[in-house]
Structures are given as structure tokens and as C-alpha cells.
Design brief:
Layout (H helix, E strand, L loop, with lengths): L1 E2 L9 H16 L3 H8 L3 H9 L6 H11 L3 H4 L4 E2 L10
Parallel strand pairs: 1-2
Amino acid sequence: MKEEGSAIEENQLPIEMGKVFRERRKFLGLTQENVAEKAGISLSFYAHIERGTRVASIMTVKKLCEALSVSSDRALGLDIVPPDIPQEQLI
């Protein structure tokens, strides 16, 4: 998880989200084509999402998160834990 103060800048979100999806895809040993098919989107569109050159709708992000078994918090850069909140108090 990220520390407080390291939130993703709004204009960097598509790039950072693409990195999350790419890293997870490679970790799982999947091709871009595999992920695009699982999410029901075109290969070209998925490749753009990974590069951060196209912005996905919230439904497409949901489908990609499901296809890659990654949390939407992680994909959106919301996995930030303020340092003054104990881990056991997090939901």
C-alpha cells in the first residue's frame, strides 16, 4: 500500500492504471489478447489502456479488475493508508 502523500496525480491516473494492469497481466502470464477477451474489449483498446493513451469507462475498469483479479482501489491508486490509522482498523 502507498503511504499518505503519494496519491496519483489526476493527469497521471491513466498511465499509472495502465502500469498496474500491465504488471498484473505479466505476473499472471497472460497476453494482452487474453485480458482483452476476458474483459470483453478489443485488443487495440486494451493496449491503449496499458499505455495510458486511452481512458477506460468505470465499467471497463471493473471488467479489467475482475479479469486480472486486482482490486479497483489498487488500479485507481486508492490503496493509500494514512500513517496514523492502525492496520486492524482498516476495512
